[in-house]
Recover the amino acids of this structure.
C-alpha cells in the first residue's frame, strides 16, 4: 500500500461527478453521488486506475456526516517495472460520502483484493479520498490516505495531488 500511496503522489487523470436532487411535491432526501474513473499518471511505468460509484443522503441538520452512504470504489495498480508486471487491486465498500462547495470526501473499507499476499494483508483496512473542483480552466486536485494512515469515517487528507488532464465536476448540497 505504501507503494500505491507513493505512486499517487504523482498527477491524476479522472472524472468525478457529485450531484444533488430533490422533489418539489414531496419531501425526499436529496442525494449526492461521486461517479467516475481515474487513470493516475506517475513518474514510473506503473498504471493505476481508480473507479468509484458512491452515493449519500446528507444530514438535514447540515452536520459533517451523511445520514446514509453506499457504493463501491476500486483501485487497480499494475507494477510496470516488475518482470513480469504484477497487478494488485482493492475493492472498497463506501461507508461515507460528504460534499460541500467544490469539495467531496469519500471513505470506505477494503472488502476484496487481488489474490496477492501484499494486497490480502490490507483486507479490512480503510481508504479515504478528497476531491477539490477548482472550476473550468483550472487544475483540480485529489488527496488519498490509505490503510497505513487509517483514516476515520468521512476523513481524508487535503487534496494534494494535481490533475494532469481532465478534472472534476462537484455538485452537491450547498
Amino acid at each position: 500500500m505504501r507503494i500505491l500511496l507513493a505512486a499517487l503522489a504523482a498527477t491524476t487523470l479522472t472524472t468525478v461527478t457529485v450531484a444533488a436532487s430533490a422533489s418539489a411535491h414531496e419531501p425526499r432526501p436529496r442525494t449526492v453521488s461521486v461517479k467516475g474513473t481515474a487513470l493516475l499518471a506517475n513518474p514510473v511505468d506503473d498504471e493505476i486506475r481508480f473507479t468509484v460509484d458512491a452515493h449519500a443522503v446528507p444530514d438535514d441538520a447540515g452536520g459533517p456526516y451523511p445520514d446514509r452512504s453506499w457504493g463501491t470504489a476500486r483501485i487497480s495498480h499494475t507494477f510496470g517495472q516488475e518482470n513480469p508486471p504484477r497487478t494488485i487491486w482493492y475493492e472498497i465498500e463506501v461507508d461515507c460520502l460528504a460534499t460541500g462547495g467544490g469539495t467531496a470526501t469519500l471513505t470506505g473499507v477494503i472488502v476484496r483484493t487481488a489474490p496477492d499476499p501484499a494486497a490480502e494483508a490490507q483486507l479490512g483496512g480503510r481508504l479515504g479520498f478528497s476531491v477539490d473542483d477548482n472550476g473550468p480552466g483550472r487544475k483540480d486536485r485529489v488527496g488519498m490516505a490509505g490503510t497505513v494512515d487509517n483514516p476515520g469515517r468521512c476523513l481524508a487528507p487535503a487534496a494534494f495531488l494535481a490533475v494532469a488532464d481532465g478534472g472534476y465536476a462537484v455538485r452537491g448540497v450547498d
Residues 137 and 167 are 9 Å apart (CA to CA). The chain has one domain: 2-22+29-170.
